[in-house]
Amino acid sequence: MRLRSPRFEKALRRRVREELRTHPELAREERRQRRRLRDRNLPSWAGWAFGTIWFFSTAAAALAQLNGVPLALSILAFGALAGVALQASLLRTALHTADELVLLYHLPLSDQQILSIQWRRHLLRTSAAVVFCVPIGIGLGWKAGPSVGLVCAAVGLVVLQFCLAEAVAVILQARWPAGPQRHLGWFFFVAMLLLFGSGKLGDQLPVIINAAWWIPPFGWINYVFYHGLVLGERFAWVLLAPVAAIFCLLPHAWRWLRSEYVVREPSPPLEELAADGLEDAPAARLQPGPTEIEDSIRAGEFLRPLGWERSGWIERLAGACLTPRQRLTAEFLVAANPGWTAGLKTAALAVVIGAGLIAALGSWGSWVLFVAGGLALVCAVPVAGGGWRGLRSCPTGGVFGPAYSVYPLAYGEMAWVILKVNALRILAACPLLAFLGAVAGWRLQGTMTVGLWIAVKAAALGLATQPLIVAARFGGGTNDTKRFKMRWLLLLVPLLITGLVALLAAAVALFLLEDLVHAAACLGVIALLSATALWLHSAGWNRSWFDLLRRQADGFGS
Amino acid sequence: MKLELRNVSKLFGAVRALERASFEVEPGQIVAVVGANGAGKTTLLRCLAGVAAPDEGLILYDDESFVRGRLDLRQRLAFLPDFPFLFLEMNPLEHLGMVLRVYGADGAAQTERALGLLRDFDLLPLVRRPMQLLSRGQIYKTALVAVLAADPELWLLDEPFASGMDPHGIDALKRHAREAAARGRTIVYSTQILDIAERFADRICILHRAEVRSFGTLAELQAQTHDTARSLEEIFRQLRSETP
């Protein structure tokens, strides 16, 4: 559907010109406004130009210093991966949060028509990046063999990669709309930039290059180009079949996207209302009149669940992983304010600054590792089970009780929600931990692998101990440790001590053992002990073995 | 919801908070639990709500044994402590919405009911204000409105008449409680104010030193004292003087 009517616009422009001619005051105002608009547009235009120059220079410099075609192709594969994630993120912005949606929403258009319009706009904006493909392709083809055929093939390869990235982005957005596309995109983009400085990688370089051949589907096309076209291996061409299959999936993904697409009512930001002359808009919003309140209550607005899909990306992902009842439980436990993505962002900042300092200070910067790592852990990883307001203790009649205790929520459902969300948050923080570990390993130990391995083990340990941590969090609001009779104590204390010693031994062994099988076995032991502890605590909670009350220092009330 | 206690005892360390408490409450009854400070009123309500775990005895709801893991039974009751457990970062409307959804009472009928309750308790102008800016009475009213709107079968209210609510709020609570009892809801509340218990209860439970000393209608309690005491205050005074 076309929103523009050139004939109508032409007639309108002619009418405006006539008006301006007859009213000199209006003409002066129009000139003034046009000048203001020109001034306002300049920075974005300058930014675009600067970005283009920067990108061309970086790409050209990088290609010039490359060791060979395989490394260039692996960089291209990582770049394409970053492209997929960023394209998917841009597509999501165009479809769900773009400014123009405010206008489109109020026009008599169906959701499907808005989808088509936004899709076209998105394509127009992103396809401009195809121009970057040409110089990259020429550089690559020239390096592979200075023949016109290879140069053309290399340009075709890069353009194909670009189109494929767009196709995969559509599939990704259709099937995983709540995913952390933008963050993944930046992660792969950083990986690509790190590969430019590949001199630091040493022995790891061939491993990365070989791994990059198997990044589906971008590595496969590279493999076809290098092994099939440059080295002449016929078998390599087989890999084009799954690539074709991805293109075949595209219409289905598009249909899926179309059927699921709903435009939500946009709400303009308060600053915009203020800028429009409604300076008292925020106050007006915060204090609606009685009629407005009654209308909103009658409409049941207060019963609407938290908009998980409109929150940060971890919240969106968590919302997608939880059932409606679990979402309600999670909403209660966080008092409708999760803040998980914000925590991860703070952690990312801490890690980037910390990594920069470690890289700059070398062995002198070992203390930074603990500061940055600690800050990142506190902000992004639920080390102590996470900040669940629903588990918070509230004072009541001389004692404290957990906030959830007076609401009909089951231990199992709360624990399951916490476990799911915590696992998600740990996984989301993994790239950060891995990055910090790699930088620390590189600067403090001379090799990235040591740091990476420790970071991976720490994340796995965090995941495996979550059930125990969750049980401990629930236990914190109860008098579970003070309610046992002597005969139970005699039975349980040796069991608890054995379990705790086994858990600690497994955790220490996990960091001491180097091979994968033994490390996995240790993790299995930790996970089993941890899950058993949660199961036991859950059984005690459900059977009312203890009170949901915590003693105050000065004793119980009535 | 029918409620029955069979020899329920509760200990906090060496302190006996409840001693072999037994009584039955039929659906549609309003029960006032009265007693001196430390008599075990709050402990009794906590045991009924599943917050505290009895050391001995049984609690039965509709003849089914109650433990904390029985979510189906917990969804049929609501416990409102003297200092309600709620998130002060939220506003009354958000709290109300969350409680209704947790109780699965988020149908269209509840919205109109919630609106009426907010109006009755003078909370309508405050519904968008964070609860940390509200007074103690207003916070209690917010929690009470959520319970009333969820309309569970059993209400357990701890000291609702000493919660900081204004006379209008107390009057509204009495009115809504009477209406709810007429609909078959069971209400158990604790209070120190004997005048209120005398006039606003179908049954009175007198707790003294962790024991249920008397349970019944005012007439039954009077009969227990051989009609020497006329008012609840006199009955209570007589009970105290009998105990060494």
Which homologous superfamily in CATH is the superfamily of the largest domain in chain B? P-loop containing nucleotide triphosphate hydrolases
Poorly predicted spans of chain B: none
Query: How would you characterize the largest beta sheet of chain A?
Result: 2 strands, antiparallel
Q: Which class of the largest domain in chain B in CATH terms?
A: Alpha Beta
> How many beta-strand segments of chain B?
10
Write up this protein.
The complex is a heterodimer of chains A (558) and B (244). Chain A has 23 helices and 2 strands. With 558 residues, chain A is mostly helical. Chain A has a two-stranded antiparallel ribbon. The longest helix of chain A has 42 residues, at 24-65. Chain B is an alpha/beta fold. Chain B has 2 domains: 15-76 and 153-244, P-loop containing nucleotide triphosphate hydrolases (Rossmann fold, 3-Layer(aba) Sandwich), CATH 3.40.50; 86-152, no CATH class. Chain B has helices at 41-49, 71-74, 92-102, 108-120, 136-150, 167-182, 194-199, 218-224, 232-242; strands at 3-12, 15-25, 30-35, 56-61, 64-65, 77-80, 154-157, 186-191, 203-208, 211-216. In chain B, a hairpin with a 2-residue loop joins strand 4 (56-61) and strand 5. The model of chain B has no long low-confidence stretch (mean pLDDT 90). Chains A and B meet through helix 14, helix 16 and strand 1 of A and helix 1, strand 6, helix 3 and helix 4 of B.
